[in-house]
Design goal:
Blueprint lengths: L8 E5 L4 H16 L7 E6 L5 H18 L2 H13 L1 E4 L7 H7 L5 E5 L3 H9 L11 E5 L6 H12 L7 E4 L5 H12 L13 E9 L8 H4 L3 H19 L8 H13 L1 E2 L4 H4 E7 L1 E3 L2 E3 L17 E8 L9 E6 L6 E8 L17 E5 L4 E9 L7 E9 L7 H10 L9 H19 L5 E5 L15
Parallel strand pairs: 1-2, 1-4, 2-3, 4-5, 5-6, 7-13, 9-18
Antiparallel strand pairs: 7-14, 8-12, 9-12, 10-11, 12-13, 14-15, 15-16, 16-17
Function: Catalyzes the oxidation of glucose 6-phosphate to 6-phosphogluconolactone.
EC number: 1.1.1.49
GO molecular function: glucose-6-phosphate dehydrogenase activity
């Protein structure tokens, strides 16, 4: 049974870091403003010697937007959380310091590791199950580990501390709105499911192109790159949701079992020069901003040959999907942001003679942030009724009132692991891309270049107009 224990204290480790200020605290504020975190106490901890005033200023600044848009009850709840919050300086890897802090907090506690993976691992290694208050949950940011072996080791470390249903491996892409929009589209429409297979679908593309450059994140990003940062951490899960067979329920066990089944059947096959592509941006202009060459960014080591744009073709060896390429792409410093899944259907087997115009394959586009739906359809006319024309049916999908990290935090404080990544799945995501990492390290696949602000290499399968 899934634990439904409600969290009384949210402890954020790495509270002085960028993730906390930019994403976690604004997400929490929206959650509080919507009355979904009543009575929660917020505690921050980090290595920086912050004063209570510095921490209060950070929290207040991050809560400001949510407070301005909230009603009277929401503003009151935000003010109460701000008033009660506290900050502690500590070294999470030092024996006893984190355990001492936990002993003084009101249980149940959710411990959010907003830290680099290797620091989170060390912090967990110095804890024992006996040092954790009853009902403690451990929340780990992705990437989970640095490879399949380290992910297995981290799983073992966590399993020695708390039950699996008290472990939340965060993937903020799996917000409830996005997940359930995909599941509702897939399984609530009888006209889609019969054609959702290799007989009718030619390819599936999942694209997350950003118009942001490095933005001061070299310390993390230069050691990761687009393949690990986005494809391993996020896009493989979106792929799995698009590819799963219908679960019997949307309970956490059934849904996460279905996701795991897809990922176990997934792989990227050699030759990797054909099935994968990588590139790095050079100097250019995005909108009104001049962007320097990636290797000229502060903190970048050119010898690492870190890619800022990656694309892989994943095969899923199941009856439903054998032979259908799932093409996953993500990159930075591109001229236009593209966040979508594109399902391309196979052409009709026969178009009766007498029709004019181009009968191109139909496409279904699912947009992420904002969540949208577009279906391309060929119809007759206007004008000559024998001429086919392409029209696009558009719809806006239901959005959540919460920010993505608010949706993540809601699952954490209600003890619902539905949208958390399960331990075996985290290992499989690394297994899928590890052969590619090794091939790229041997320069088996050339590192191409593209101008910042441009569309990326023109000959890639996912190129605009490609």
């Amino acid at each position: 049974m899934t634990s439904k224990t409600r969290v009384n204290t949210l402890l954020i480790l790495g509270a002085s870091g960028d993730l906390t200020g930019r994403l976690l605290l604004p997400g929490l504020a929206r959650l509080v403003a919507n009355g979904l975190a009543d009575g929660l106490k917020l505690v921050g901890a980090g290595s920086d010697p912050w004063t209570p005033q510095q921490w209060t200023k950070r929290v207040g600044g991050a809560f400001e937007d949510a407070a301005n848009g909230a009603g009277a009850a929401g503003r009151k709840a935000i003010a109460a959380l701000e008033k009660s919050t506290e900050y502690h300086q500590l070294d999470v890897t030092a024996d006893g310091q984190l355990a001492t802090l936990l002993a003084g907090l009101e249980a149940p506690i959710a411990v959010y590791f907003a830290l680099p993976p290797h620091i989170s691992q060390k912090a967990c290694e110095v804890l024992t199950a006996q040092q954790l208050p009853p009902g403690t949950s451990l929340v780990m940011e992705k990437p989970f580990g640095s490879g399949s072996e380290s992910a297995r080791e981290l799983n073992k470390t966590l399993a020695a501390l708390v039950p699996e249903d008290h472990i939340h491996r965060v993937d903020h892409f799996l917000g409830k709105a996005t997940v359930f929009n995909i599941l509702g589209l897939r399984f609530a429409n009888s006209f889609l499911e019969p054609v959702w297979n290799r007989d009718h679908i030619e390819k599936v593309e999942i694209i997350f192109d950003e118009d942001l450059a490095l933005e001061g994140r070299a310390r993390y990003y230069d050691g990761a790159g687009a393949l690990k940062d986005m494809i391993q951490s996020h896009l493989l899960h979106i792929m799995a949701l698009l590819a799963i067979d219908a679960p019997s329920s949307i309970g956490e066990r059934d849904l996460r079992d279905a996701i795991s089944t897809v990922l176990r059947a997934s792989s990227i096959t050699a030759p990797y020069k054909k099935s994968t592509r990588r590139a790095r941006y050079t100097a250019g202009r995005i909108g009104d901003r001049d962007v320097p060459d990636y290797v000229a960014e502060a903190g970048v080591d050119p010898a690492r040959e870190t890619e800022t744009l990656a694309e892989v073709e994943v095969g899923i060896d199941t009856w439903r999907w054998k032979g259908v390429p799932f093409i996953l792409r993500s990159g930075k410093a591109l001229g236009a942001a593209r966040k979508e899944a594109i399902v391309t259907f196979r052409p009709v087997p026969h178009l009766p003679s007498g029709f004019e115009g181009v009968d191109s394959p139909n496409q279904l586009r699912i947009g992420f942030g904002p969540d949208t739906l577009q279906l391309d359809v060929d119809v007759n006319g206007p004008g000559n009724i024998f001429t086919l024309n392409r029209v696009t049916l558009n719809a806006e999908l239901n959005a959540s009132d919460l920010l993505p990290y608010g949706e993540v935090l809601e699952g954490i404080i209600t003890g619902d692991p539905l949208l958390s990544v399960r331990g075996d799945t985290a290992v499989d995501c690394w297994r899928i891309i590890e052969p590619v990492i090794k091939a790229w390290a041997k320069d088996s696949v050339p590192l191409e270049k593209y101008d910042a602000g441009g569309p990326g290499p023109a000959d890639w399968p996912t190129a605009v107009g490609g």
